[in-house]
């Protein structure tokens, strides 16, 4: 592997219905990260998906669909490493070690578990509870320095940093003795933000755009064709006022704010830039402009996804290649972790230099 200054890792769950929120909040940013001086790894996190029930055949299709979306959006599987998590056993292996580093009290504070488990917490899977520890293992198996994620993953990234820190402290003597200096795991930086860190529902600007919204008009699916995209934007909820000329004027106007944010993110400009052009305009002017922009940016991706999903053999080959490349990096981390923790392992063991 060439020497890069940064290692970028991120993951997307293969749980179906990828939409504009996933694209602007994650995939589009993954594409842009490829231009940094960084090795990028993009992972379809199938181990995370099964923390809640998944129909096996549907899951297999969804893993291929997310991979197709990555490729269709412009992730280059030669430059970046594209793979699915279950092909690299080191994720689960490192998660076990981290299970013994993370504290119950830390996990008990995770708000996403509380939301996802709901009232029937006793009936949630142990995997759902342990989800953030596996996520820390995903990131730290590659000793990733940067992780682009949505706002909702901030707490999980903090847990990742806490686990890295505690591992580095608990094993500091052994880390030094094995020649890794005074820290083995990096304290990973989350990269949160951009104009569309949170894309909201087209029917209700106070709710996140979601794959599970009962109204299909609330979201733009990455598989929607040009007509569907344009129609959903035309029907998007708005208020009666024209657009303001300053960003401050979007406060208390969630639907207007959302559409301006989507425009900015698609065009790669700021909300300020959008309002410089559209301040004072009615939605009857702004919506067609947004629809045009959305169609030109998204319809080709949908088309390319259809082409790619028609050839699952090609997608599986991309994942196999990515999985093998990912494993070479993760295996090095796990060898070192085993030495640091004090396990005896097969292969040329690096004895402590002390
Ligand atoms: N939990 C993330 C989400 O739902 C997905 C994920 C799993 C992830 N492992 C990761 C994201 C590691 C970033 C890094 O969005």
TrEMBL record:
It comes from the Bacteria. The keyword Secreted does not apply. GO terms for biological process: tryptophanyl-tRNA aminoacylation. Its EC number is 6.1.1.2. GO terms for cellular component: cytosol. L-tryptophan binds at residue 138. GO terms for molecular function: ATP binding; tryptophan-tRNA ligase activity. Its main location: cytoplasm. NCBIfam families: trpS (TIGR00233). Homodimer. This is Tryptophan--tRNA ligase. It comes from Methylobacterium radiotolerans (strain ATCC 27329 / DSM 1819 / JCM 2831 / NBRC 15690 / NCIMB 10815 / 0-1).
